[in-house]
Specification:
By secondary structure, this protein is of the alpha/beta class. The protein has 13 helices and 20 strands. The chain folds into three domains: 2-238 and 355-413, FAD/NAD(P)-binding domain (3-Layer(bba) Sandwich), CATH 3.50.50.60; 245-350, Succinate dehydrogenase/fumarate reductase flavoprotein, catalytic domain (Flavocytochrome C3, Chain A, domain 1, Alpha-Beta Complex), CATH 3.90.700.10; 435-517, Methane Monooxygenase Hydroxylase, Chain G, domain 1.
């Protein structure tokens, strides 16, 4: 297949970009590829909302910029922060024009929420399913474009570069180029190649590297792993944001139900097993401190009291208002026997968001020519060492637009590369035992959760690296000798992502933002990004 624009991923970043290029070039072909269904994305599970300054009487760009910089703990790119905050309102108005509905007051003004790290009320939301509503609006808008083709149930194996033409490609190779991708068609089980002038990676996060995460099962870090294998630049992978409040369900592994930060924004209080409101011991902002501080405080309380969770107290809320604002949280809690008017909600931190990723410039360009990245898989410089709540949906839309602006002229001068070889699968056979893959996945998640979680130290990181080395060797042997499957490719990608997280964490000899190392509890004077 040949296409002008190839988009890998169908979340808010990928669909916003696809819609824009399709409208700009009605005569050109846009292919959107996803390994699951069109709406199974991280976007769909974003509850809280989107942070944007739209009330200049009570808020300002300067305040939003300052809040973002404080949360980012010295590692934000200030120019990028200013770009995202100031261009944000136009992008939000755009998705409203495309049909997204945000909650309004009776007088018609938008309801504004407040979350941890924000100095003002500026979070637009649609009940507690904001991401799902934005995804719905985008899918409807994309469906109306005749030149966008959706390809579902296809797994991208690798980015095609000069390496596949027989050239030696290393990190120091100048002008590495992307010609398209190899994909495994999960319906036919055939490996195909898709050649493109411009490729955008919008592949989402990597939460499945950990045992418990708020991310869906598709969040396996595929884009980051592919770019790293293609010798592209990856940065700041050590900054994994753990959402402080995922619903604790005994024995649960995999995707945990998120209790949005907006609950604390509306007055929810964190309490330990003795019923004490403990956040005031850790930060003057109490329950509305930034996520890294709240997650570490909860981790500390759990270890101190020997419990597996703390409590989120919402018993003082008006039942009607809670149901109006958080209907899905109310229903989920009720389904597991928790009436929020009488019981506190058991919560514990879960892997939530990757602040690092594919290093891009302010136009979404990666270090590989004709390859762009935006959304959670990218590292634009906005989040620094810790993402400010509800900035991610905003970043995705702003950078999707900026990628679109940059490719408008470029696409005219790029030619599709011919003579790309077919994928070579000779010498491989069906795996004899799937246990080799499933057991390795369990080991990976256990290692990452126990050694590379909220609190780290050098011994834990060293152990993690030794175990990942062994897993990598075993998995590469399997990869070379057996036919490809989703499970094998996801495992391979997650081991690569785990390695990058550990490597970044080992390089950072300080504690900053989401990375806390008990061997280096203070910040160093040298503030820098870790580029791998």
């Amino acid at each position: 297949m040949r296409t002008d624009f190839l988009v890998i991923g169908s979340g808010i970043a990928g669909l916003t970009y696809a819609l824009k290029v399709a409208q700009e070039f009605p005569d050109k072909k846009v292919v959107v590829m996803t390994k699951a269904t069109a709406d199974e994305t991280n976007t769909k599970y974003a509850q809280g909302g989107i942070a944007v300054v739209n009330d200049l009487e009570n808020d300002s760009f300067e305040k939003h910029i300052e809040d973002t910089l404080i949360a980012g703990d010295g590692l934000c790119n200030e120019k990028v922060v200013e770009i995202v905050v100031k261009e944000g309102p136009d992008r939000v108005n755009e998705i409203i024009e495309w049909g997204a509905r945000f909650d309004k007051e009776k007088d018609g003004d938008y309801k504004l929420g407040k979350e941890g790290g924000h100095s003002e009320y500026r979070i637009l939301h649609h009940k507690d399913i904001t991401g799902k509503e934005m995804e719905r609006a985008l899918i409807d808008a994309v469906a109306a474009q005749k030149n966008i083709e959706f390809i579902k149930h296809c797994f991208v194996i690798d980015i095609i570069t000069q390496h596949h033409l027989g050239y030696l490609v290393t990190k120091s190779t100048p002008d590495i180029e992307c010609y398209g991708v190899y994909v495994l068609n999960l319906e036919t089980n055939h490996i195909e190649k898709i050649l493109a002038k411009i490729t955008l990676l919008a592949t989402g996060g990597n939460g499945q590297v950990y045992r418990t995460t708020t991310n869906p099962s598709i969040a396996t870090g595929d884009g980051v792993a592919m770019v790293y294998r293609a010798k592209g630049r990856i940065e700041n992978m050590e900054f994994i944001q753990f959402h402080p409040t995922a619903l604790y369900e005994p024995g649960l592994k995999g995707q945990a139900f998120l209790i949005t930060e907006a609950v604390r924004g509306d007055g929810g209080i964190l309490r330990n097993k003795n019923g004490e409101a403990f956040m005031e011991k850790y930060d003057p902002r109490k329950d509305l401190a930034p996520r890294d501080i709240v997650a570490r405080a909860i981790d500390s309380e759990m270890k101190r009291t020997g419990t597996e969770h703390v409590w989120l107290d919402c018993r003082h809320f008006s039942k009607e208002k809670f149901i109006e604002h958080f209907p899905n949280i109310y229903e989920k809690c009720l389904s597991v026997g928790i009436d929020i008017t009488q019981h506190m909600i058991p919560v514990s931190p879960a892997a939530h968001y990757s602040c690092g990723g594919i290093k891009t410039d302010e136009w979404g360009r990666s270090s590989v020519k004709n390859l762009y990245a935006c959304g959670e898989c990218s590292s634009t410089g906005l989040h620094g060492a810790n993402r400010l709540a509800s900035n991610s949906l905003l970043e995705a839309m702003v950078f999707a637009h900026r990628c679109f602006i940059d490719v408008k002229e470029k696409v005219r001068s790029v030619e599709i590369r011919e003579n790309i070889p077919d994928w070579n699968a000779r010498g491989t056979a069906e795996p004899k035992e799937m246990i080799l893959i499933t057991q390795s996945l369990k080991e990976l998640q256990l290692v990452m959760s126990d050694y590379v979680g909220i609190v780290r130290n050098d011994v834990r990181l060293q152990r993690a690296m030794h175990r990942l080395d062994l897993l990598w060797e075993e998995t590469e042997q399997l990869y070379q000798n057996t036919s490809l499957s989703t499970q094998l490719m996801e495992l391979r990608n997650m081991i690569t992502v785990g390695y990058l997280i550990v490597k970044g964490a080992a390089f950072r000899k300080e504690s900053r933002g989401l990375h806390f190392n008990t061997d280096y509890p203070d910040q160093s004077a040298l503030v820098q990004n870790i580029v791998l």
